[in-house]
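Z., the sequence and structure:
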Amino acid sequence: MIYAKEMVEARSLIEAGIDPSTLFLNERAARAIVPCSCATLKKARCEGRLFGRAAPPYRKAGKFVWYNAAELQSWMDGAAGEPLRTTAEAAARVVKAQ
């Protein structure tokens, strides 16, 4: 297993082709995959929600929190949704969902 503690380190390991299932990221490094602050990730762990859906899975080792890169990427892929072309299209989807 490989542990990354910084966002830059995580990006370089991912770009180098390291198997993401063996890569664990702390919350600072997890920002390389999930575009939010460390405080937002902490809040998501407490509330169980992030970006309007279930928070990404994580592991605790003592006081340290670790996210598996493969699980985080899979979670992020599901959070993205379908691409939009206009803001009107986004508004129509919101109205349709209600």
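The domain at 2-97 is CATH 1.10.1660 (Multidrug-efflux Transporter Regulator; Chain: A; Domain 2). The chain has a mean pLDDT of 85.

Let me know what you think.
H.
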